[in-house]
Amino acid sequence: MTDSVADPLRWLVELEGVPSAYAAARDGIDVMLRDRGLRRTSPEMTAESLLRGAHASAVLEGSTSTLAEVREGTGDPITTDSVRLSASMLALAPLLKTSPLQAIARLHSVVAAGSLPQDSLGRPRDEASADRLRGVSEMLLSGTAAPALLVAGVAHADVATAAPFASHNGIVARALERLVLVARGVDAKSLVVPEAGHLALRAEYESNLRAYGSGEPRGVHSWVLYAAEAYVAGAEASPLRRPSE
């Protein structure tokens, strides 16, 4: 695409430092996946990546459980919710390509099951929240030429800062980010752990989300540059890099 109206992320791709940051992050992920040999990976390795991500996402949401406790099934309710979502979320990758709104609603329905009334699951809090989710959906369906990593980072920040649901917004946002990476072919077997990347950079993660939420171009630029750094950290947290943790 060449039209900035048709491509809603074009302006971000043109910002200083963004193309090189995302090219480097993607190269690092591709090298890791290629060097370790995707053909030698297993469903167990994907499950391990998802478990690490569920734990990291839960901690960012306020959990105090350790990874060891999560492995033992003794984590607090937040981790229980996050792990439940991790067990089913990859099945939503095809739906994300065609009906992002339905996929996002399903993410919330799964993670918030048992915490909210049935009629609140997957439903935005108000019309403004519904509008924000429609904007995310339109962006994901736009055919943008922006790097898939950038698309994932923007989708994450949009949902996290809009907080469209009655609960679990951060977990939904981070799950959506991972799902975009899967659906767009960056990490088809979901071996990168972006949630762990954000946890490793927690102070930067939280401050840059606040900056993004301001809506100011400088804040959005700051988040986009941060997200590229977080993907590098997420790749380092992969079970391909760190088999035991």
Summarize the structure.
The chain is an all-alpha fold and 245 residues long.
Topology:
Blueprint lengths: L9 H4 L4 H19 L6 H18 L6 H6 L4 H12 L4 H6 L1 H12 L15 H15 L6 H15 L6 H15 L10 H7 L1 H12 L3 H20 L9
Helix pairs in contact: 2-13, 3-5, 3-10, 3-11, 7-10, 8-9, 9-10, 9-12, 9-13, 11-12, 11-13, 12-13
Description:
With 245 residues, the protein is an all-alpha fold. The chain has a single domain, classed as Orthogonal Bundle (Fic-like fold). It contains 13 helices and no strands. Helix 3 (43-60) packs antiparallel against helix 5 and helix 3 (43-60) runs antiparallel to helix 10. The protein is globular.
**Average residue-wise pLDDT:** 94
Report, as a whole number of angstroms, the end-to-end distance.
Answer: 43 Å
Counted up, domains total 1
Into which percentage range does the β-strand content fall?
under 5%
How many strands in all? Answer: 0
Order of helices and strands: HHHHHHHHHHHHH
Q: CATH topology, anyone? A: Fic-like fold
Shape: globular
C-alpha Rg, in Å? 17 Å
Separate helix tally: 13
CATH architecture: Orthogonal Bundle
Spans where pLDDT lies below 50 across 5 or more residues: none
Kindly report the name of the CATH homologous superfamily.
Fido-like domain
Portion in helices: 55-70%
Q: How can the largest sheet be summarized?
A: none
CATH class: Mainly Alpha
- Helix and strand composition category: mainly alpha
